[in-house]
Amino acid sequence: MRVRVWSFAVLAAVVPAAALGGCSSSKAVKATPSPSPVASATFPATLQATNGPVTLPARPSRIVSLSASLTEDLFAIGAGPQVVAVDDQSNYPTGVPKTSLSGFTPNVEAIAGYRPDLVVVSDDVKGLVGQLKALSIPTLLDPAPSNLDGSYAEITQLGAASGHTSEAAGLVQTMKGKVTGLLAKLPKRAKPLTYYYELDQTLFTVTSHTFVGNLFTAAGMVDIADRAGSSTDYPQLNAETLLSNNPDLIFLADTKCCGQSAATVSARPGYSTIAAVKNGRVVALDDDIASRWGPRVTDLLSKIVDADRSVPAS
Any idea what the Cα angle at residue 287 is, between residues 292 and 180, rounded to 5°? Predict the structure, then answer.
């Protein structure tokens, strides 16, 4: 089983590490501060990242990314030619310099072997950031944000770090425009729709307090996982909870990893009574897009909005 999640840490205590994939790991359960945007692309530059001030003496020409989301950000702002290596989960866009480097079990010597003048990571696994600092390798720690503003801030910071400030600003404006346009398409409802977001077939899910949950909240939907009263934002529901809450929509973020589909969901015992199943509103998502917070997050929001619009307004 492979589980694609926005934050590894919350599930780490209950799911074997070998079962997790697709998204970077994180030791922080609470939302981390967004990086401080930097207006200038001049060097030397000192950036304020989650791991504190990071000084770049010159425009980096050998960037290593150990985060699939940050890899997408870098290529989207035109810094792709500066990226010399990415981790084994970075598979977009086509042609990224994918390697056997791991964000889950990082090997400092292997990373240093690429002679990076900048490393970008989403997680400080086993003190990775400190180990790279000891080798005088500048490292930006940009964890999974808690909302879209955090995503925009990370893109802005990567633009400053890579010397692509204007391109980053343009990407952020484009994303904001798409988000505004998508949300404007939502129908007005007297009663909000409810949804269940599936991370894997053992019913791990997300609450509205996660990054992806924030997208659904922006679309005016109510997360049934919020009613579970769990102490984690990545709870594991049971079938009884799911059936009793009877969500209007089901979103599957486990189509690639776990082979789930509308057909497999409807075949589960008792699920044929759920409104989302009865009305054909089980939405298959691309696991990668559903687990990342880069530029393609607008594609995920588009699927959410389309699903909402498929339900007649009452």
Answer: 50
**CATH 3.40.50.1980 domain locations along the chain:** 34-181, 187-309
Q: What is the mean pLDDT of the chain?
A: 89
CB 198, CB 253: distance < 8 Å? yes
Using CA atoms, how far apart are residues 167 and 151, in angstroms rounded to an integer?
A: 15
CATH 1.20.1250.20 fits 34-181, yes or no: no
pTM score, whole prediction = 0.87
Q: Which two tokens stand for residue 81?
A: 């030619």
CATH code of the region 187-309:
3.40.50.1980
Task: Let me know: does 197 contact 225? Beta carbons within 8 Å.
Answer: yes
Q: How far apart are CA 62 and CA 116, in angstroms?
A: 5
Structure confidence by residue, pLDDT tens digits, 39-80: 446 899 999 999 999 999 999 999 999 999 999 999 999 999
